[in-house]
TrEMBL record:
Limits of the Soluble ligand binding domain: 119-162
Annotated protein name in UniProt: Uncharacterized protein
Alphabetized InterPro entries for the sequence: HH_AprE-like, Poly_export, Poly_export_N, Soluble_ligand-bd
Location of region: Disordered: 1-21
One Pfam match: Poly_export
Signal peptide range in chain numbering: none
One GO MF term attached to the UniProt entry: polysaccharide transmembrane transporter activity
Protein's organism: Methylobacterium tarhaniae
Ranges for domain AprE-like long alpha-helical hairpin: 168-354
PANTHER family: POLYSACCHARIDE EXPORT PROTEIN GFCE-RELATED
Length: 434
């Protein structure tokens, strides 16, 4: 459960400009960026010829680092930033922009963390879940954000049961969202590969879930409609090309007729000239034949021009089809990228919901059996932290400083207590779609 948005303070600058250090920035000096961190980028350039500071408005915005650790920026493209501090990212952006726009000098670039990726806390706390990170956060503060040690009341058992039901409802909703995104991704893949139909996996198509079947029917209808729309446009252009080819054939026939007439008129002109030399024909006949020759030559030029225009129209029609298919491929690729990103964002939310169910149905009853002893026991803390070599387990105490993305586990010492019965968890809502 997110508890608001924590504004980051760590900054990095590149270029000739300077920036004032943000308050508390020293608490996360050298912080390495990672997935789900949101950065605020500022890019400015001093243009001496105009005596003004130019702001790169397309880049002056907040951007979220993707699940694969890349930062997608307009103009520049994708930059791998996982594990880098903000100052290094600032230099990378400045260099990329300078090289891409062929600038003489790199622009002044500032990168700061707008929102840190969340941290997670589970175990013996009142409100386990996902929380917004803030600089200077210690284990003790994190436990306080999560409501402190479990405070079980007489109605605690009912509350835990309600929490489990709510968590299962949330998880079921997340599974429906994942099913919808997965089926959409299958449809987009079929469109990208220009398949005649969508190949749904057998385990998906055979699931006895009316919701899944409705999603399959909807995406199939969208697939057919989009495919038909593209085919209709292409067919219209192909019809135009067939008409133009018929026109070209007619013009070629017309040119052949004109060439024949020109040959006949040329023969007539030569004959008249010979007769005129012998005084058997007047000059008037020769002039009339020449006039006819000029008319035929003009008609041939006009017909040739129409022929060239028709061929040019066919070329433009071919280009239109290519452009139409290219635009569709670009659109489908963009939709697939967005859908995959949404699927990636669902994974940690589903993991948190499953852990909440586990806490509500398995771990929490232990605290109900002896509240006083549970409250008096001193907890132990373990931190799971992502590093370059993988997930690192760290022992901690109340004063240990946390980092964004940490997963804090709070445990109480094992106590021999009477067993507490609890309903077995239902697995129907947690069925996975692989």
């Amino acid at each position: 459960m997110s508890q608001g948005i924590s504004q980051g303070t760590s900054q990095g600058t590149s270029g000739t400009g300077t920036s004032a250090p943000a308050a508390g920035a020293t608490s996360l000096a050298g912080y390495a960026l990672g997935p789900l961190d949101r950065i605020r980028l500022r890019v400015f350039e001093w243009r001496a010829s105009r005596d003004e500071i130019f702001a790169w408005t397309a880049l002056n915005d907040e951007f979220t680092i993707g699940a694969d650790g890349t930062l997608s920026l307009p103009i520049i493209g994708d930059i791998p930033v996982a594990g880098l501090p903000t100052r290094e990212v600032s230099r990378l952006v400045a260099r990329r922009l300078r090289d891409r726009m062929e600038l003489a000098d790199a622009p002044d670039t500032a990168v700061e963390i707008a929102v840190y990726r969340p941290f997670y806390i589970s175990g013996a706390v009142d409100k386990p879940g996902e929380y917004a990170f803030r600089p200077g956060l210690t284990v003790a503060k994190a436990v306080a954000l999560a409501g402190g040690p479990p405070r079980v009341t007489d109605g605690g058992l009912l509350r835990l049961e309600r929490d489990a039901i709510t968590a299962r409802g949330d998880l079921a909703g997340l599974h429906k969202d994942r099913d919808q995104l997965t089926i959409r991704l299958l449809r987009l893949a079929a469109e990208r590969d220009d398949k005649p139909k969508i190949d749904f996996p057998k385990e998906l198509a055979s699931r006895p879930d009316p919701g899944v079947l409705a999603l399959i029917d909807r995406e199939t209808a969208i697939f057919e409609a989009r495919r038909k729309a593209l085919a209709t446009q292409v067919d219209a252009i192909e019809d135009l090309k067939r008409f133009l080819r018929q026109q070209i054939d007619a013009l070629n026939g017309q040119l052949a007729t004109i060439d024949t007439q020109i040959k006949l008129i040329a023969t007539e002109i030569r004959s008249n000239e010979q007769l005129a030399e012998r005084g058997l024909a007047t000059q008037q006949r020769t002039v009339a034949a020449g006039r006819s020759m000029a008319q035929m030559e003009s008609e041939k030029l006009r017909t040739t021009t129409e022929l060239l225009r028709a061929r040019e129209s066919i070329s433009r029609a071919d280009l239109s089809i290519l452009d139409m298919r290219s635009r569709r491929a670009t659109e489908v690729t963009g939709e697939m990228r967005d859908t995959e990103r949404q699927l990636q964002q669902l994974k940690p939310r589903m993991e948190v919901a499953e852990r909440l169910i586990l806490e509500a149905e398995v771990s929490a009853p232990r605290f109900l059996t002896d509240r006083a002893q549970a409250r008096r026991a001193k907890p132990t803390y373990r931190i799971a932290r992502q590093s370059g070599a993988g997930v690192q387990e760290i022992g901690a105490d109340d004063t240990t400083t946390l980092m964004p993305g940490d997963s804090v586990s709070v445990e109480l010492p094992n106590i021999d207590l009477p067993a507490v019965s609890w309903p077995a968890p239902r697995t129907g809502a947690m069925t996975s779609l692989n």
